[in-house]
Amino acid sequence: MLIQKASWITMDGAASAVVPVFRRTFLCPLPLRAARLEVTCDGVYDAYLNGCRVGSFILAPGWTEYRKRLQVQSYDVTSLIGENNTLDITVANGWYRRTNAPWTGTQNPDEFLPAMLIATLHLTYEDGREEVLLTDGNWQVSESQVTLSGIFIGEDADMTRSFSFEPARVCGFPKDCLIPQEGPEVREQETILPRSSFRTPRGEWIVDFGQNLTGYMVFDITAHAGEKLSLSTAEVLDRDGNFYTANYRSARSQLHYICKEGKQSYRPRFTFFGFRYLRIDEAPAGFRADQLRAVVLHSEMTRTGWLESSDPMLNQLFSNILWSQKGNYLDIPTDCPQRDERYGWTGDGQIFCRAATYQYDVRQFFRKWLADVRAAQHENGWVPEVVPSLTAYKPGGAAWSDAVCIIPWQLYETYGDLSFVSEMYEAMEKWIAYIPTVSTTPDLWTGCWTYGDWLALDAPEDYHPATIELSKRGYSNDDLVCSAFYANSVRIVIRAGTILGKDVSGYEALHQRISAAFKARFGEQLNTQTEKVLALHFDLADDPQAVADALAAQITACGTKLQTGLLGTPYLLHELCRYGYADVAWSLLLRKEYPGWLYSVSKGATTVWEHWDGIKPDGTFWDDDMNSYNHYAYGSVADWVFGVACGIKPAAPGFIRARIEPHPDPRLNSLSAVLDTVHGRIRSAWKYTGDGIRYEIDTPVPAEIVLGGTVTLVEKGRWIFGEQRPVSG
Ligand code: BGC
Which atom of ligand 1 is nearest to 628's Cα? Predict the structure, then answer.
């Protein structure tokens, strides 16, 4: 890349929080054939050439394992160049230099770096002559009108400020980390108008967009210089209908805008927010709520999946899951988009991955993030709990670190692209080789710290864990959870190695030993719902039907309530159906009371909540501390709806062949799923009619259609079955 020839530049002695803008003016006297800008920075930037924004990538250069991989963007700017030119590139803190969340107890070593820019502008004239402008001492720099910026903070802008340019300083900073752009760009996706505006009992002026979302607010305004517009963000209102921000914790998440004279519009340039409501804290006289709009941001992805049922509440749940994917696939897969976190939690990433592949084409999104997982992996094999690992850098443990195996395997299954597996195989091997170095028992994974079945509901009332962290983890046995995930990761390595033509005999022997040790140690101790689910899902039970029977009985005995946390929930309905308890699975899905998927819908949720009872029946909150209303983990149930309720699964990797095995339930009149696979569109729909069930299946590939245990092999085409007998094809 040309950019290797450029120098990093910075602002001398920049001590204030004001965001700097770097400027290069230049003449372009001859007819131009092409102009290309390559650029990146240690933060997030936007570039304007002659007043026009370059490209539509928001929050470029995105978030990667920066010290090893910093993406460089390359823009065709031919149409923006004139004779006299001004190129302005503003560089804010972004993720690179953000202040760490206080709860991590760690300091980001890069927090005190100055804003730095590196760029090249490559001009090719019609006569073939070429010219390259590099970042160097010929650039100028000034404080910009963005006076404060941060991912958690939000943004302050003062449009009355004037610029004062001085020479930029060339500085030494590594260039070996520079790589071409890999991920899909984050872009503005849609605009949402306010649904209503009102005063709260406390007198606050609120604008409701009717949808919890990730993005920012934009506005048009006519004002006098110095007048101020201040906006706060919130996901929910409290029991009394007042604006509620405590769940953002230390994230300020506000916009403060000082107007210039006259007509103007603004959108935050270097941050994003998770919100449904805005509170207008201060506004110029005459400002109206309908001058505000919300803009949704997420990584560019093509939608591939659609669900629709006869139940409006279920449809709202499907919508909530989709919105939680949109809101948390902003350059990296995050846990949540609003509080002082927004990290690439590896566990959440793997939990939702399968559902994600049904809803969107996530190949490019994950290819880039998995490269960061590889880059973040410690040399002795452990995988951090968050990737990029800039902060909170410690092993993720069971189910979190196992993302290194689970995600690439899922991508291979959905898309049939072997490169996901070949690129990750070494990292997978390193991960499973690490586990025995820390485990206290051969062939099991014991004695190690884990987040366990995070947020499970099954701890007995007299359970008094030693730390707050432990109190959020339910009652499943840590050693059992770890060992189950160890077995699963080894099994994935065997499958991956086999298709890559590797000798996996050692891993096969290891898996047999783990499986035997697991059954011997835990076989009689599958107590919690999650313990049973994991033993079933990872095929670690001696008598799986008996375990499933016990699981169904346990769920029924406690009032048909799930007690599972982040680890058990994604597999729970799958395992119930697999062993003949589809009715119990449906009861859990359709449950409208806490804990259940439709409970949050009944409380007006428009995204998936972190806690089943994020808002309790009496309107109070689960807690202020860790209470996100946009957390997709439990939205993983979408993969059950697509894959089991509608029954669309790959029969061979990448859907070269499909297996369609719907599981209807009479409590729902109809359900349909559409999935755009890499081999075309599959549709599976069922509907209760007066005299039975009608199934409609469209498949672009040969398929095994399984109805009531009967397998019918069909060619591509439309297939309609009634009463479980084909009536036409
Ligand atoms: C996140 C989770 C994450 C967890 C680790 C939380 O704060 O939001 O979703 O996986 O920490 O247990």
Answer: 8
340 Cβ closer than 6 Å to some ligand 1 atom: no
Encoding tokens for residue 324? 């939680």
Angstrom distance (rounded) from CA 568 to CA 22: 51
d(CA 370, CA 332): 10
- Per-residue b or e along 346-355, where b marks 16 or more CB atoms closer than 10 Å to that residue's CB: bbbbbbbbbb
DSSP structure class, residue 330: E
What digits encode the pLDDT tens for the residues 643-702?
A: 999 999 999 999 999 999 999 999 999 999 999 999 999 999 999 998 899 999 999 999
The answer to whether the Cα torsion of 574, 580, 583, 584 is positive or negative is negative
SS3 track for 39-93: EEECCEEEEEECCEECCCCCCECCCCCCCCCEEEEEEECHHHCCCEEEEEEEEEC
Q: Which of 183, 558, 651 is nearest to 388 (CA)?
A: 183
Residue 484 Cα to ligand 1 middle (Å)? 20
pLDDT per residue as tens digits for the range 465-523: 556 556 677 899 999 999 999 999 999 999 999 999 999 999 999 999 999 999 999 99
Catalytic option among 204, 341, 429, 575: 341
Beta-bridged to residue 693, according to DSSP, are: 688
List beta partners, residue 263.
222
For residue 345, what is the DSSP state? B
> Beta-carbon neighbour count of residue 156 at 10 Å?
22
Atom 2 (ligand 1) nearest CA:
335
Ligand 1 atom 4 nearest Cα: 345
For the Cβ of 398 lying below 6 angstroms from any atom of ligand 1, the answer is no
Active site residue 379: no
Give me Rg for the CA atoms of the chain: 27
Residues 6+ apart with CB under 8 A from 523: 535, 541, 542
Determine if ligand 1 sits within 6 Å of the CB of residue 455. no
3-class SS at 236? strand
Q: Which two tokens stand for residue 546?
A: 């008996």
Give the pTM.
0.97
- Do 651 and 704 contact (CB within 8 A), yes or no? yes
* Other C-beta atoms lying within 10 Å of the C-beta of residue 604: 13
Q: Is the CB of 399 under 6 A from ligand 1?
A: no
Work out which ligand 1 atom sits closest to the CA atom of 345: 10
Alpha carbon dihedral 579, 580, 585, 590, in 10-degree steps, equals 170
- Is residue 610 annotated as a catalytic residue, yes or no? yes
**Cα 103-105-65 angle, rounded to 5 deg:** 95
- Give every CB contact of residue 66 below 8 A, 6+ residues apart in sequence: 42, 95, 96, 110, 177, 388, 390
Find the 452 Cα to ligand 1 centroid distance in Å: 11
* Token pair listed for 437: 């170095």
Angle, helix 582-590 to helix 544-557, in steps of 10 degrees: 40
**For 247, phi and psi rounded to 5 degrees?**
-75, -5
For residue 432, report the distance from its CA to the centre of ligand 1, in Å: 23
Question: How far does the chain reach from its first CA to its final CA, in angstroms?
Answer: 55
Ligand 1 closest atom vs CA 451: 12
Task: Give the atom of ligand 1 at the shortest distance from the alpha carbon of 469.
Answer: 12
Q: What percent of the chain has pLDDT over 90?
A: 90
